[in-house]
């Protein structure tokens, strides 16, 4: 999911200002817990590719590190860049062999594939809008974006009569609303009510943003005071949409985006549905040069301010003293010290894996709360990366994404797929990064890449989790082969001009691949479940019970590239309260 809509951003500024006024005295009494050097920018001689592939060695660690960030996804890179620009010496440690998390790309057989950045919204072609301002700030204005046309998504399902039913979700909401009213003439009032609820929920996002900045002691009062604004965080998508109409087909169409956050309509909080729709009002965008450009440019900002970004640096534990304060991390049996530690690997991994056993009592409540099934991810994803010869225009490869479902009954589809690995895929996502990135044809002439993603349920692969990567046994390989062929067949059926003979690369990975390459927990690519329980829980609080240890990334706000990036911004402001005015400016649209 990709969050922070423009109305929400305005109200987020208001919410943050309120928190600043109420909590300012607290921070002043508390005193500054961190130091700040005068920001000095230096030239970094490494190339972009060298910058994001620097292997860990203790001699590469800067002297007198202020902040250690565990993980180099957008939640890690954004918080690191913001703090580096505030004069902190930041060390980013990544367990994989390349920086970027879901913005990283990989090459196979002469093709470049993206992994987790498929589209993002928020008027990124206009530098006055918050999302563009955020990217510009953390990258020093070095990333540009391509608008992907007037259609954002096409959702396809089998209608009740067996016919193919394709719905175009357009960048222009007036066009989409007109389509819905033409198709469902008896539901005009319901459609208007839905868009009204979308607007209200998006405004509530700003209030939640304020909650995450709010001091721990004030969170309960803040929730109580703003309970009406947080209404749509506490209701499911199905609950809200079904209260507006009894037309099952309309309900299914309005609920199509559940794959963007990984929870079916009966489980997901309505705010997710709302911000997805609002986020793409105006269009979707793709990073020019591919998503790895973002990681490369942000890493350069961090290093140009005296920091370091290192890979193949798996953190095994956070170092905690007798008083319960974090003072460093352990990497490959080497201890690295810092005044502030930020974990972006998710709340479950942080609290259950990185806190030493003799300090587990300090996070007992968080660990216990994380056992709640409503907080856990209910599915993962598996991915098929397809490289094939041809011309994008001749093959009719779209810049929009395609979603395919067995029917518009998403919860029934989900349940059937969850119960059996042989059931129809409850959702399929198809995308062509080679058609989206205007530089791809120049960089890889005559080559195209497609991505097919489907939900993957961890219990279906859990028995293979202890095997070594690429050596998990014949049964696992057989299961993968079946899924891979099914997904490839769906892909070829949807895009008939792409022939099986033209395919030169077809790489496939499951939830276990996510755990190995991305460091996820049980393949949970989206982090914690995006349920009402998540948004009423304090386990997402960026402050932890361990002094000097903070959370950042997807679990702080929401999943997705921008959800993680804004999570980083929140954590930076929590650590350095003087950032709050700057946060307000980034979250508001600049007047022209």
TrEMBL record:
It comes from the Eukaryota. One of its GO terms (molecular function) is oxidoreductase activity. InterPro entries: Amino_oxidase, FAD/NAD-bd_sf, Retinol_saturase. Keywords: FAD, Flavoprotein, Membrane, NAD, NADP, Signal, Transmembrane, Transmembrane helix. The keyword Ribonucleoprotein does not apply. The keyword RNA-binding does not apply. Residues 74-373 form the Amine oxidase domain. The chain crosses the membrane at residues 6-28. PANTHER family: AMINE OXIDASE DOMAIN-CONTAINING PROTEIN (PTHR46091:SF3), BLR7054 PROTEIN (PTHR46091). Belongs to the carotenoid/retinoid oxidoreductase family. CrtISO subfamily. This is Amine oxidase domain-containing protein. It comes from Aphanomyces astaci (Crayfish plague agent).
